[in-house]
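Recall the central idea of this unit: under ordinary conditions, the amino acid sequence of a chain determines the structure it adopts. In this exercise we apply that idea directly, starting from the sequence alone.
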Amino acid sequence: MIEQSQRRVPMPVAAASVTLLVAAALPASMMFTSGPSMATGLIGVLLLLALAYGLWRGSGRARFWTTVFSTASVVYGVVAITKADALGLLQIVGASVVVGLLLVPASRRWFHDRPAEE
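Accordingly, the structure predicted from this sequence is:
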């Protein structure tokens, strides 16, 4: 049998990472048309990409900050629901899904059961 040097990423963590990548692609595409300023959009896209990479690698800090930013996004979306359009509702649902995926037991084990580095 072939030994694997790396563990497989659990499905909830992979789904959360893919959701963050999709969330990074939406502002990136809108940034060039009529979105926010180029610098603000680029910082947001880079932040989402870094968080997705950190989740994939099993970083507890990435999990913490992703949960914080996603929860803040849900709270902001619920407070501003009266002005929400379809993209705003998609943001609320996406952030809720990411928080839920990071709280399931399989993803919690991924971040807490990291093997010791040699």
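The two ends are 23 Å apart (CA to CA).
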